[in-house]
Design a protein that fits this description.
Elements: E1 7-13, H1 21-28, H2 37-45, E2 55-57, E3 59-64, E4 69-73, E5 76-78, H3 89-97, E6 105-108, E7 121-122, H4 128-149, E8 153-157, H5 161-169, E9 173-183, H6 190-195, H7 199-214, E10 218-222, H8 229-246, H9 254-264, E11 268-275, E12 278-287, E13 291-299, H10 306-321, E14 326-328, E15 342-352, H11 355-381
Parallel strand pairs: 6-8, 13-14
Antiparallel strand pairs: 1-3, 2-5, 3-4, 4-7, 5-6, 8-15, 9-14, 9-15, 10-11, 11-12, 12-13
Helix pairs in contact: 2-9
């Protein structure tokens, strides 16, 4: 337990391995599995993240005078903007067209993971004043490192709203986005959820689930020791095929999934669909304290509505059964609204070194915020929930 000793300076480490798992997780907490040492180390140890992939770790750490870890922040020196889900390609193109050099840049994020969670990780057993001081030290440390490295910019993506506001006080430009999340309103069953929808949407979902049932597939959610290497082999095949078809490249290698299962198996919820005992599709989720986070999906066969079943409805079933409040089904997807996933704001913060580029980005963000606010209002007006149920 901390005893009031003053923290030392903010330092940079070149690998998550330089921080112990237990002390890192004491800072990260249990609410978001992606912030955990196990997830970040699986990315680095598998080679999915590293210098060769354009994600060079520059994690920040704050230790007390006896070497105990008090605060940390995942941070990467990036040579591109792939795998971020908050797009700044236009900023990079405009800056380089004007003669500037946009890359490398600094990014505080969870690689390849558009899920909201803390980025300024401070031990929660400290007094409020100490937590505030350490949070500010991490935010200031990011900007100081950006200046020292001479990079064009620093970006913090998918932080919590409270962190987002705090980063604004440190001079970062504030950006908003949106995702589509499902909320558990105390449902006891999937039918309870359906009863909350208007008649037309309720019938549509029942029709989709019935169509999947006719395929005769065996669909189940696996976690912990129930997930074998054979399951990971099958899922990686789905992930690889889908990634190659959709994006032309894949970020995660096969070793990552084995390490994920080994280090965080109890947080993994792997939905697998089998046809006659043969795996044909899968959806990877991770469970946090109150949220099920959908991450990757893949299929080697075309079964109508199976994507919706595996990624959305099975996730809802799991959240209800395990009394989780939220399901975050990943990036994009206005089609999720009619399936009970409503728009919810996401956040990012951006420090820009060049005054001219900063001014242009600030102007762009002001207009973008208005557009997103308008779109969210329009989408909420098309909510599938009964008016008396809102």
């Amino acid at each position: 337990m901390p005893d009031g000793r003053e923290p030392t300076t903010v330092n940079v480490i070149g690998s998550i391995a330089e921080a112990g798992a237990a002390e890192w997780d004491a800072c990260a907490g249990a609410e978001n599995p992606f912030c955990a040492w196990g997830f970040l180390s699986a990315l680095e140890d598998s080679g999915s993240v590293g210098a060769e992939t354009g994600w060079l770790p520059h994690h920040l750490v704050v230790r007390d005078e006896l070497g105990g870890l008090m605060a940390a922040a995942p941070l990467y020196l990036k040579s591109h903007s792939y795998g971020e889900y908050v797009f700044d390609w236009g900023w990079a193109e405009a800056y380089e067209r004007a003669g500037g050099r946009y890359y490398p840049k600094l990014l505080s994020a969870i690689p390849f993971t558009p899920a909201t969670g803390r980025r300024l990780l401070v031990r929660q057993d400290l007094a409020d004043a100490a937590r505030d001081e350490l949070t500010d030290a991490l935010a200031a440390g990011m900007v100081k490192l950006a200046r020292r490295l001479g990079v064009s910019s620093l970006h913090v993506t998918f932080p919590t709203e409270a962190e987002w506001k705090r980063l604004g006080k440190h001079g970062l430009l504030l950006r908003t986005g949106q995702q589509f999340h499902w909320r558990n309103r105390g449902y006891a069953s999937f039918d309870d959820f359906l009863a909350d929808l208007n008649s037309r949407k309720r019938k549509a979902i029942k029709k989709e689930r019935a169509a999947v049932a006719k395929h005769g597939l065996h669909i189940r959610a696996l976690t912990g020791n129930a997930i074998t290497e054979a399951h990971w082999d099958a899922f990686y095949g789905f992930y690889r095929d889908t990634s190659d078809k959709k994006w032309g490249s894949r970020y995660l290698n096969r070793e990552f999934f084995s390490l994920l299962g080994e280090r965080m198996g109890e947080s993994v919820v792997l939905v697998m669909a089998e046809d006659g005992g043969r795996p044909v599709a899968g959806a990877l989720n991770l469970a946090g304290a109150d949220t099920l986070f959908g991450r990757n999906w893949g299929s080697r066969a075309d079964y109508k509505f199976l994507h919706f079943e595996a990624c959305y409805y099975q996730a809802i079933d799991y959240a209800i059964a395990h009394r989780l409040e939220w399901v975050e089904a990943g990036a994009q997807g206005p089609h999720k609204v009619q399936r009970g996933y409503l728009p919810r704001p996401t956040y990012s913060a951006h420090w820009i070194a060049d005054p001219g580029l900063k001014s242009a980005v600030e102007h762009f963000l002001a207009g973008e915020r208005r557009e997103i606010e308008y779109e969210m209002r329009m989408l909420l007006a098309r909510s599938p929930f009964r008016r008396d149920g809102n």
